[in-house]
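Let's practice the habit of predicting before peeking. Look at the sequence and jot down your guess about where helices and strands might fall. Then scroll down.
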Amino acid sequence: MSFRITGLSAQPFAHLFGLDDAALARHGALRMHGEGLPDRVELRDTTASETVLLVNHEHQPADTPYRSRHAIFVREHAGAAFDAVDTVPDALRRRLLSLRAFDAAGMMVDADVTDGHEAEALIARLLARPEVDYIHAHYARRGCYAALIRRD
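Done guessing? Here is the structure:
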């Protein structure tokens, strides 16, 4: 079964790009520098010369007990969102993942943990369940939202 992984749109974060640290703080955001920080837009790790914004993001807006928000990294001046079929980006591939399957009403129906190198097998198992509408990938160690997975 084909699947599509997508990153977040940069548009909701664009108003933060280029702000000074005081203005970012007023938005509850923080600028950070560092190699290997996982951007949630392009779904890639940053290089040493790039900056990211650490922001709080509501990744599960469904009005259910599973409504959720958490800290995520967004590369400052990120471009187009990652969007690919049957491709697990390296930023997910190299990490331990928690995959959480939700139905159309936003209720979690299944979840499991997998090494990113073995993500396809768990994605296939979860998407084989007819009640699963979408999957949220999280970086398991810190619990941060990583990406959206749907059937293609």
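How did you do? Strands lie at 3-6, 30-33, 51-60, 68-75, 83-85, 96-102, 108-115, 134-139, 144-151.
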